[in-house]
Amino acid sequence: MIPFASPHSQYKKLSKEIQAAIRLVLTSGEYILGPQVDSFEKEFAAYLNVPDVVGCANGTDALMLALRAHNIGVGDEVIIPSHTATASVAAVSICGATPIFADIELDYYTLDIRDVMRKCTSRTKAIIAVHLYGQPANMKELLSVARKHNLILIEDCAQAVGSAINGQKLGSIGDIGCFSFFPTKNLGAFGDAGAVACRNPAIAVRLKRLRQYGWNEERISVESGLNSRLDELQAAILRVKLPRLDANNEERLIQANRYHSAFLKLPVRSPLVRPGALHSYHLFVIRVAACDRDLLVSYLAKKGIKCGIHYATPVHKMPYFASKVALPNTEKIVNEIVSLPLFPGLKLHEQKRVITAVHSFFDEKM
Ligand SMILES: *Cc1c(COP(=O)(O)O)cnc(C)c1O
């Protein structure tokens, strides 16, 4: 069986160091917002080249805290792709704001700038640029639209930790960057964890209040807040894994390039990479004819190869978020996408089995 992702192989590789890090926290007696969270925030800020990182409980909260730190709530509109993890949109709605769905570019699967401009109204307060699959959104154009209309540009970097555009790490380009360390993400904890990266020190102060009951530094609530702290144990684990992130992403890139050249002659569309981008390949998503998609997935499953579909239902088609908006590109690709196994620790012979199986699917169809 070839899994689709394998956080467990990361654990096996680093088990001694991870166990030592966990033991250190357990014996230290400091379990909440202690030295591990503090150090991780500093190390991750240095990695991203931003002044401040604020840890929080998960990636959804990171987005929610980013919105709330900018006073975005009831009556405000937030432009967001529908072709994303439900979490991106859930964060908007838990703030009381209205998600306004925009379509994606067919080449890169990130926000289509023309549709974003069309969706701007006097109520628009923010854009959430999702760097889907590890591909950078069109930040240059999005920044210029955001500046023109006085909008907050939030980067959803949950799938793009380590990705960059023109040498700048994602999460350091917009007004604020939001990260998830869900176990399967490129930088994964062994439980839930998240973080917000910001360039404005006043926003960092605000995020620290919001994540803990609205407390100021004297532990006096000065506004409404919740409990969304990054766990000390998860921070300790993330500190072991952060120094390996770039090497892991390089391994993903090598695997992606291998798939890419193997599929050149097949009726398969491999992901394009935006010019100037360093793609972190959180997912390797191919597109095939809609009539072949489900057949391919079940063919591979029969050969012991597990694939994914990210995402089978666009968020605007889900009952709670249902919208009649027309998103032709989103609705087209949803029936064509397949995510192939790609993760650090995927063995060469395993990847060759995937490649051979994809070839034989199309050979047998002839
Ligand atoms: C994983 C993910 C999130 C949310 O992360 P959680 O930690 O599960 O809350 C948000 N946006 C995108 C694009 C994601 O892939």
**Total strand segments:** 12
Number of discrete helical segments: 12
C-alpha geometry? globular
Kindly estimate the percentage of residues that lie in beta strands according to DSSP: 5-15%
Low-confidence stretches: none
The helix content, as a percent range, equals 40-55%
| Main β sheet profile | 7 strands, mixed
Output the CATH homologous superfamily of the largest domain.
Answer: Type I PLP-dependent aspartate aminotransferase-like (Major domain)
Distance between the termini: 27 Å
Distinct ligand kinds? pyridoxal-5'-phosphate
Average residue pLDDT: 97
What count of domains describes the coordinates?
2
Q: State the assembly state of the protein chains.
A: single chain
Q: List SSEs in N-to-C order.
A: HHEHEHEHEHEEEEEHHHEEHHEH
CATH topology of the largest domain: Aspartate Aminotransferase, domain 2
CATH class of the largest domain: Alpha Beta
